[in-house]
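thoughts on these tokens:
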Amino acid sequence: MSDPFLGLTMLMLIVVVIMMGFPTAFTLMGLGMLFGFYAFYNPAEPWIDNRVFDLMVQRTYGAMTNDVLISIPLFVLMGYVMERGALVDKMFYSVQLSFRRVPASLAITTLIVCTFWGIASGLVGAVVVLMGVIAMNPMLRAGYDVKLAAGVITAGGTLGILIPPSVMIIVYAAVAGQSVVKLYAATMFPGFFLALLYLVYVLGWAMLNPKIAPTLPEEQTRVPVPIWMKRFEALYSRNMLVGLISALFRPSRAMAIETEDGRFTYWRLVKNAVAALVPFLLVAFTLALVWWYVVIHQQAAETEAPEGLEELGAPAVDAGPAAADGSATGFYIWFGIAVAIAALALVRYYRKMNAERLQVVKLLVSSVMPLAILTVVVLAVILFGITTATESAAIGAAGAFLLAMQARTLDWQRTKEAVFLTAKTTAMVCWLFVGSALFSAVFAILGGQALIEQWVLALDLTPVQFMILSQAIIFLLGWPLEWTEIIIIFVPIFLPLLQHFDIDPILWGVLVFVNLQAAFLSPPVAMSAYYLKGVSPPHVSLNQIFAGMMPYMLIVILCMVLMYLWPGMTLWLPNYLYG
């Protein structure tokens, strides 16, 4: 048997051994050592001098000194601290009240909370288990179809591994030698777009067939409005925003209101007025941030840049004032349209700001806002270049501890569990890198990589055909394997071919990330199904969970097609932010 075919045998053997249940990292190292010993074997030298031992040491040291991997334990710690801190119960209740008038409100709430919580934690298993405990029984008691309930939990729980901060993105960046920051920017729009497709599917299904998601009874959609709010409405106005602003200048009647905590105070009046203004403040802050970054920040950066400098060896390029003016004019037009739409939405929202709506806003502010602020800060400091990914992960981990301590849900025992699980997960990822590096090196030495490249090039594929072939192979590998094995073992085989077909490795990588959503939703190794089965009632079968996940696999494929037809969805943000 020639060496290249020995390399292919090595590749096929790793799939078989992993499917038999052996640990992936040590299987990679074992096969790498075994086949590497053969590749480096020299009868004239003692076996102890075989260079495969030197290769093992070099690859281990390379994983230990890889700066990209430093952020993994901190992001994982952030996720485990928030998961152990049990911060999601109140969030689910407040979001459910917000969408109480929407068809399939419990399913929509579950999908939104899964997405948001997955972004914050980045842990698929933890999100699926947690949402299975919180949302599965309420949906089943409300008469929801089992497949609908199982599908939204399993599909929503996997989004955390796609939308940053995600461990999978960091692993791919280390394997492909790409920028973590650019990959984070590239996955933002596709991740939220996939979540939007899930929402549209659930809403459409519920509207076409209302029996799968019956309307909730009145007692489950009633907002718990305090008695003092009803008295306040009677004294001032049915519109709470108008009444609160009026009471700030004429507080005498409000001060006479008795509440469950005693007499109403002016400080409480101020807090409720600020809570009522939160939607307006969020919209205004978002628009102001966009204006600052695009107009003020960019102009300052251009002013600071030295004039007359050109890239060495590049032809002189005249950008032309017309192009710049056209771009600026286009931004002003779209920004004006966005401001007008936001103003109309706020006017419509505040026109019906009654006591129920204010109470829902207060619940959202207390449950969602802290976690949202932490997540936005962690992502913003990375995307705007304020910190590195590692420093941002440290901010996220520290913020997770602060949130859990503020909620008084994190004791010493839960802290120890979070730290232990972080160490365990980090060790697993790092050993996977060691085994993958050794395996890939031996595979290349045996000529397996060159043989695959020659075979692919001999097919004379177009870039589109290669893209379809590579993604189809990864999709099929997602049925028996998990994302870690695919990213670490098989993705490096395709990476050298991207340059030949002139395919952007960032675009291809994000397509792989979306593709790997199917790895969590495809039997027989669909881990999300097994996570959910472990916390579901006994009458919910594994086949029902599998059936509920299947439509979302088709949605993943649809999302990939749209991403390829419209690459700007993936590449616009990293190109705009970093060139």
About this structure: Residues 308-324 have pLDDT under 50 and may be disordered. Residues 144 and 288 are 42 Å apart (CA to CA). The two ends are 49 Å apart (CA to CA). The first strand starts at residue 258 and ends at 259.
